[in-house]
Amino acid sequence: MKLGRVLFILLQLFILLLINKVGFIVVDVIHLPIPGNVMGMLLLFILLSTGAVKLTWVDEVSTFLIKHLSFFFIPVSVGLMTLAPLFLKNGLALLVVLIISTLVGILVSGSLSQALVNRKEAIRSEQHHHHL
Is pTM beyond 0.70 here? Predict the structure, then answer.
């Protein structure tokens, strides 16, 4: 891998880390009851939607991180093995919460993705009609 490409990927990672850090700062300053990393994702979404941050500025490192996402869960999975008594005591309640939160996440992600695709198609269709 060429040095220039490595530096470009590191710069993209720095941009994502900076936005994440700003999310934590915003949550601390405003005392919002949400995690800082969630605020960071919301900020990234807003910045990408408004064009303040171009997708090309974070695309390559984002693709890399998503491709290797499963590796980030290994430490969490190992840590969960130490919590067997908690799962035995509250397993059913945890299972219900996990199922509901997973379904909500899937529904929200799917709905948002579909809305964005429909919006993009509408914009393309409108641009096509203007060119005619």
Answer: no
